[in-house]
Amino acid sequence: MVVLGAPSIIPSTSATAAVRRAEALIPTPFGDFRMLAYADEPDAYAPHLALVHPEMKPDTEVIVRIHSECITGDLFGSKRCDCGEQLNRSMRIVSAGKGILIYLRQEGRGIGIINKLKAYQLQDHGMDTIQANVHLGLEIDARHYEVAQEMLADLGISKIQLLTNNPEKIEAFENGPVEVVRRLPIIIDPGKENLAYLRTKEISMGHWLKL
Ligand SMILES: Nc1nc2c(ncn2[C@@H]2O[C@H](COP(=O)(O)OP(=O)(O)OP(=O)(O)O)[C@@H](O)[C@H]2O)c(=O)[nH]1
Ligand SMILES: [Zn+2]
Question: CA-CA distances (angstroms) from residue 78 to 121, 133, 193, 209?
């Protein structure tokens, strides 16, 4: 018999702003994961998600990807960015390494899908990804990573190997409850549609891309 609301197989160790609200097994082409939803409100529409390998061991240096929502790239395969390919590759790496993928609901570097589409339109008229956000009166990058650290702490994790090319993500972990012991690059070969975007990330945002 399935008992709804049964105790989690992954113990919860904290209850901060990101409260674990629900979880279930999700079989994917990359393997099985437990999907856990974290939110302030019990029935929040867009909770942050953790995809946890069923054999993840919290007392090891867990391989972690912190992925920011990109509906255009992740869901529809847009070639304007590298997000969809990064997501697929991350799931493969995380599955093989018995790690965790955290999916943060901060679409468009935190400005939301409506503003991201407006920014894309400006980019189609010659601005780069930074200039477009500035033109709209928005932050270049409005993302935060505290919630990801809270989720990792909730899962009992204190040391991670972080899959990223973004120096700000590494800095965000300094002095926090979770230590990044190693950075693992996740570089996607550029295509003609995203080369300029990736170059801007490398040159103006300091991403470690070696293009
Ligand atoms: N505002 C804005 N957001 C974008 C644009 N292209 C992608 N994004 C968003 O950028 C976020 C992904 O950021 P990236 O800079 O690709 O990667 P990252 O997460 O910072 O770094 P990595 O860990 O190395 O992948 C997602 O939330 C996307 O929706 C754009 O042109 N404008
Ligand atoms: Zn994207």
Answer: 14, 19, 9, 20
Please give the tally of structural domains in the chain: 1
Give the Cα-Cα-Cα angle 142, 182, 21 (nearest 5 degrees): 55
The whole-angstrom separation of Cα 211 and Cα 202 is 8
What is this model's ipTM? 0.96
Going by alpha carbons, the residue nearest to atom 18 of ligand 1 is 166
The SS3 call for residue 97 is: coil
Task: Please name which ligand lies nearest the alpha carbon of 167.
Answer: 1
Q: Each residue of 143-181: pLDDT tens digit?
A: 999 999 999 999 999 999 999 999 999 999 999 999 999
Q: Which domain holds residue 166?
A: 21-106+143-205
Separation CA 19–CA 13 (nearest Å): 11
Q: Is residue 183 part of a domain?
A: yes
Decide if 151 is inside a domain. Answer: yes
Q: Is residue 160 part of a domain?
A: yes
Q: Is the pLDDT of residue 39 over 50?
A: yes
For residues 85 and 120, is the Cβ–Cβ distance under 8 A?
A: no
Closest CA to 176 of 194, 195, 153, 197: 153
198 in contact with ligand 1, CB cutoff 6 A: no
Report how far Cα 40 is from the mean position of its chain's Cα atoms. 18
Q: Is residue 127 part of a domain?
A: no
